[in-house]
UniProtKB/TrEMBL annotation:
Major facilitator superfamily (MFS) profile domain sequence ranges: 57-586
Short name of one Pfam family: MFS_1
InterPro entries tied to this protein: MFS, MFS_dom, MFS_trans_sf
SUPFAM superfamilies the record matches: MFS general substrate transporter
PANTHER family reported for this sequence: MAJOR FACILITATOR SUPERFAMILY, VACUOLAR BASIC AMINO ACID TRANSPORTER 4
Topology of this chain in the membrane: Multi-pass membrane protein
Alphabetic keyword roster: Membrane, Transmembrane, Transmembrane helix, Transport
Sequence segments annotated as region (Disordered): 1-26, 241-270, 585-614
Protein name: MFS general substrate transporter
Domain of life of the organism encoding this protein: Eukaryota
PROSITE patterns (alphabetical): MFS
Residue spans of biased composition, Polar residues class: 601-614
GO CC term (a single one): fungal-type vacuole membrane
Phylogenetic placement of the source organism: Eukaryota, Fungi, Dikarya, Basidiomycota, Ustilaginomycotina
Length: 614
């Protein structure tokens, strides 16, 4: 070994430090460490929220959600009374469709609102729209204005649901997120269970307008309660994110809103000229308008097929569906280019995350499956089994109860174990098995088999809680509001597609079966009456009645097959969903260095970072 000289290297080649990572690798590593530090500090703040503040805030959230659930089923009992009052039965389907349209289309807007004006202010806006729409329903002088009022109420109802979910994410630690989502599902179920009987009672005693008017004082109370009792923690924000991008917008500079919650708008890119951006661009109102119009075309086309019974080849149907496709393409292009500069209502960068793709697809296909089942199962009981409305409700009650119980169980399981992938697959397999069993239902199916299929189907509702927790675990805090707004949009879109497509399948099958079975003089009139009023089946002679019952049951089996296929797609998406361990929150430590902080949900179980924000 040669003697060292003053020109000899201080470190031999084998002793030298490893070459430094490339600049790109260094940036990624720093971003991961920064996000881990931020996530740990956010979770520590949530853990420190006093119990009294937590419980009063939950009362504010759940009271408004309960009223939305009550309104959902309350309105379904009023259709006959409303159509008789205005003598405008042709507009009756649009009472529900207008609500569904705005409820679905405005959900992403509230995710954007929550970032721009704050979580609390966005929630208050949702309650205000819902209250105004409900009050207008009570005094509407015509069916057209009633449909408009329901659309206004839908804007608020979608906002309340989305903002409740966003606020819960800011209020409770992620490991307990599923539990509180299960409680929200429970109180929503209480509202939906109460709405039908209450609406029928008020309509029969005081008139259908009181069914809407009676909600207004409760909604005003909920609004005032939120103003004075909802106090959200001030969560840490990303140090290198620009300050609120809406500083020049009057609503965005509300200091009270910014002090009450962590909903500052921090999603604008650093290079954006935020000082000159008007509020309407920050909220992406053009994108929201495109979304509403495209969904209107879709709903109109599906309604022409399912309600008006036009064939899909009809020019009106084709025009609606083609318009929907074109407008959707324009919307996606706009969101990815123009709206990206100031803040898109649905940020396209979210789709760089595999969890977001799986969750969005799951919400869409699962709600497609459930809506087809929930809407047509009562028809099976009333037309196929000749059950009364009361007995039909009792048959469906176990499903509603198990829906809430399963969501609560899933929440406890997630908090206890911090894992969700295996539970999600079990829920999916049980749901597929129960939906598949509906394809074998007939006139002679025993009550034991009915309950054995219906009760376990409620377990599928737990999957919504599980997927939502997976989503909130995989994303940084800055993307939580937009991502949850996207999920509620997919939920609404799945419901629209589920009702429209399953309704079209049902109507087509029942028309074919009735036409093949009921023949002879007056058969066309009988078939038309049956398609318009399923209770007419009770007035038929025994032979014709049996033929009609078999036709409705076969049509229900067709819907059950479509729902089963849709949930099979959910199962495939769930298999692709990565699992992130929901770690327990560390206690805050003033001496802890940022790179020592542990993110509550930073890596998947295989140790690989997934879905870093673009």
């Amino acid at each position: 070994m040669s003697n060292p000289s003053e020109r000899t290297r201080l470190l031999a080649p084998s002793q030298q430090a490893a070459p430094s990572a490339s600049p790109h690798d260094t940036i990624v590593t720093d971003e991961e460490a920064r996000q881990a530090s931020l996530a740990a500090r956010i979770e520590a703040v949530k853990e420190s929220v006093p119990r009294s503040q937590l419980y009063t805030s939950l009362v504010c959230l759940f009271s408004s959600v309960t009223l939305v659930g009550l309104d959902t089923t309350l309105v379904t009992t009023l259709g006959g009374y409303i159509s008789s009052s205005f003598d405008a039965a042709e507009y009756l389907p649009w009472i529900g469709l207008s609500y569904m349209l705005t409820n679905c289309a405005c959900a992403p807007l509230y995710g954007r609102l929550a970032d721009v004006i704050g979580r609390k202010q966005a929630l208050l806006m949702g309650v205000a729209f819902f209250t105004a729409g409900t009050a207008m329903c009570a005094v509407a002088p015509s069916m057209i204005l009633l449909v408009f009022a329901r659309a206004l109420a839908g804007m608020g109802g979608g906002g309340i649901a989305a903002c409740m979910s966003i606020v819960l994410t800011d209020l409770v630690p992620n490991r307990s997120r599923g539990l509180y989502q299960g409680v929200a599902q429970l109180v929503f179920s209480i509202g939906t269970a109460s709405g039908g009987p209450l609406g029928g009672l008020l309509a029969e005693t005081l008139g259908w307008r009181w069914s809407f008017l009676s909600q207004v004082p409760l909604l005003l109370t909920a609004y005032i309660t939120i103003v004075f009792m909802l106090h959200l923690p001030k969560l840490p924000k990303e140090e290198d994110e620009p300050e609120a991008v809406a500083q020049t917008a009057p609503m965005a500079t509300n200091d009270q809103a910014r002090s009450d919650d962590s909903g500052e708008a921090r999603t604008a890119p650093p290079h954006a000229e935020v000082q000159t951006v008007p509020l309407w661009k920050l909220l992406d109102l053009p994108g929201t308008l495109l979304l509403i119009i495209s969904l209107l075309c879709l709903i109109s086309g599906l309604t022409l097929i399912s309600s008006s019974r036009l064939p899909i080849s009809d020019p009106k149907v084709i025009a609606c569906l083609v318009s929907f496709a074109v407008l959707t393409a324009v919307f996606l292009s706009y969101e990815g280019t123009v709206a990206k500069r100031t803040g898109a209502v649905i940020p396209m960068r979210l789709f760089n995350n595999r969890t977001v793709i799986c969750a969005a697809g799951y919400y869409l296909t699962s709600n497609f499956a459930f809506q087809g089942f929930i809407f047509h199962m009562p028809i099976y009981f009333q037309a196929g089994r000749l059950y009364t409305s009361t007995k039909t409700g009792l048959q469906m009650l176990p499903f509603s109860i198990n829906t809430a119980v399963s969501a609560l169980f899933a929440g406890f399981y997630l908090r206890k174990t911090g894992r969700y992938w295996n539970l999600l697959q079990i829920c999916n397999l049980i749901t597929i098995a129960t939906l598949a069993s509906y394809t074998t239902f007939d006139i002679n199916t025993s009550d034991v088999k009915l309950y054995a299929s219906i009760i376990p189907n409620g377990i599928g509702a737990a999957s919504f809680t599980i997927v939502l927790v997976a989503l909130t675990t995989a994303l940084p805090h800055r993307d939580q509001a937009s991502a949850q707004g996207l999920m509620f949009f997919c939920r609404g879109l799945g419901s629209v597609l589920g009702l429209g497509i399953s309704g079209a399948l049902f109507q087509d099958r029942v028309a074919n079966e009735l036409g093949a079975r009921i023949r002879g003089p007056g058969s066309a009139e009988i078939i038309e009456k049956l398609r318009r009023d399923i209770l007419f089946i009770r007035k038929l002679d025994p032979v014709t009645q049996l033929q009609a019952r078999e036709s409705f049951i076969l049509a229900f089996q067709t819907v059950a097959r479509a729902s089963t296929a849709a949930f099979a797609c959910c199962f495939i998406l769930a298999l692709w969903l990565p699992e992130h361990t929901i770690n327990k929150t560390q206690k805050p430590d003033a001496e802890q260095q940022p790179d020592e902080a542990t993110a509550p949900a930073a890596t998947s179980t295989n140790g690989r970072q997934e879905g870093s924000p673009a």
